[in-house]
């Protein structure tokens, strides 16, 4: 890039972020519209790398101003966050901006939280776009409260921007590839054997499918962890695989909200501490798989997970609003301010629903010769079968409810008509249907706050 840009104001603060490995992000900025001076950059976050690879402060200011030009007459509902995606081919960059209203120095301003990447990283970033936007949107909700109380929003934004930089850097080197060689998975073995017990593999794949394809694989051996990660990724779409991450051999990554499958290494003591807030904020419930002791745990079903997530979000925002100083709320503090909602820290439970779909698949796939494309084809056919069942289930519910005009009251008929009498089979198909039509679980089961035990009683009562 040329350097013919206006110089950066000395008042703009800049944070250099030390990262392990290459970060595809050039910079992140927080800018606002000043009614006298126009677009102004308040803060810049940039990775600490070779300076020749970075944008100059003048270039960053120019690009940040570009995202706010034309926003002075912005008309949006209170609290709305607009997501804008700019591709500036002449500058060789892409800019993702979240535009929102907030109070700075007692005045209402139009603000923009933006990230800047090279245009060459477009294909890398697009699969992760929804994850980044969802996380930024929530930190903006917190930031607007901080701004209205007159506190420093930069500390709140940094709490999410720095982890996003770390996430993008880790995905650059350890992302699961779109095409997975079945020879690198458990399904390539001659038989299941002692290294992966049949019941453990069955539970892992079944629970993985029941939790919408979201799983974390924890263990002490990186090769064993990554082998299970690749195995589970066989049951994801190519775009979902791009949102999955292998574990790092020499050190452990942090748990990241929004990834579909991620490998995590235990520490030297043989333990791994999961951050409650990040796990609860995942868009779907998650399966926890420990390859050291062959255990499989899963979070409650979608409708309960969504209910707990929204209650916790409201409690977190309420706690921020009630805080009397910037130091009152730690980033990962467990919120107990809402007396009507006490989060259950033991959010993982045993896999309760057994299935026949995955059991038959495992029995049959190991009858085929290993190291051949035949097993890969069989996996594809199995996923196609589940997908068709999910589409059929959606159409069935649509017809029974007149496209949502009536409540759904015939779960027993659905299970019989679609050959989903086994609860595990129903959970697998409904999980895929949930990804195709968000909110399906809450619509079918009505009250979204069922406990898992009550949820099983509902299944049995139809």
UniProtKB/TrEMBL annotation:
PROSITE patterns: DENN_C9ORF72 (PS51835). Pfam families: C9orf72-like (PF15019). One of its GO terms (biological process) is endocytosis. InterPro entries: C9orf72. GO terms for molecular function: guanyl-nucleotide exchange factor activity. One of its GO terms (cellular component) is autophagosome. This is CI072 protein. It comes from Gadus morhua. The gene is c9orf72.
């Amino acid at each position: 890039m040329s350097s013919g840009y206006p110089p950066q104001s000395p008042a703009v603060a800049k944070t250099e972020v030390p990262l392990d490995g290459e970060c595809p992000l050039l910079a992140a900025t927080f800018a606002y519209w000043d009614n006298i001076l126009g677009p102004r950059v308040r803060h810049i976050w940039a990775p600490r790398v070779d300076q020749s690879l970075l944008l100059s402060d003048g270039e960053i200011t120019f690009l940040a101003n570009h995202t706010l030009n034309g926003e002075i007459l912005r008309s949006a509902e209170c609290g709305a966050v607009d997501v804008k995606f700019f591709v500036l081919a002449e500058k060789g960059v892409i800019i993702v901006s979240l535009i929102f209203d907030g109070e700075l120095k007692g005045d209402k301003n139009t603000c923009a939280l933006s990230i800047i990447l090279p245009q060459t990283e477009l294909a890398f970033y697009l699969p992760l776009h929804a994850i980044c936007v969802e996380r930024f949107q929530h930190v903006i909700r917190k930031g607007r409260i901080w701004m209205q109380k007159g506190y420093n929003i930069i500390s709140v934004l940094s709490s999410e921007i720095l982890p996003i930089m770390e996430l993008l850097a880790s995905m650059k080197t350890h992302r699961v590839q779109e095409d997975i060689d079945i020879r690198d998975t458990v399904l390539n073995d001659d038989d299941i054997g002692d290294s992966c017990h049949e019941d453990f593999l069955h539970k892992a794949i079944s629970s993985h499918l029941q939790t919408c394809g979201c799983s974390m694989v924890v263990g002490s051996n990186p090769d064993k962890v990554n082998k299970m990660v690749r195995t589970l990724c066989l049951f994801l779409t190519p775009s979902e695989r791009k949102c999955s991450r292998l574990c790092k051999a020499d050190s452990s990554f942090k748990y990241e909200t929004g990834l579909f499958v991620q490998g995590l290494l235990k520490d030297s003591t043989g333990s791994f501490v999961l951050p409650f807030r990040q796990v609860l904020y995942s868009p779907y419930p998650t399966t926890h798989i420990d390859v050291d002791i062959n255990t499989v745990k899963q979070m409650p079903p979608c409708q309960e997970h969504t209910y707990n997530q929204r209650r916790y979000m409201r409690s977190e925002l309420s706690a921020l609003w009630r805080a009397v100083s910037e130091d009152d709320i730690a980033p990962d503090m467990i919120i107990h301010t809402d007396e009507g909602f006490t989060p259950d820290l033991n959010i993982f439970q045993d896999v309760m629903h057994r299935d026949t779909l995955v059991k038959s698949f495992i029995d049959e796939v190991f009858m085929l010769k290993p190291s051949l494309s035949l097993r890969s084809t069989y996996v594809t056919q199995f996923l196609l079968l589940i997908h068709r069942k999910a589409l059929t289930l959606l159409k069935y519910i649509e017809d029974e409810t007149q496209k949502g005009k009536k409540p759904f009251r015939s779960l027993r008929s659905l299970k019989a008509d679609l050959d989903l009498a086994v609860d595990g089979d129903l959970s697998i198909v409904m999980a895929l249907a949930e990804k195709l039509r968000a909110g399906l679980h809450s619509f079918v089961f009505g009250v979204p706050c069922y406990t898992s035990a009550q949820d099983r009683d509902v299944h049995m009562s139809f």
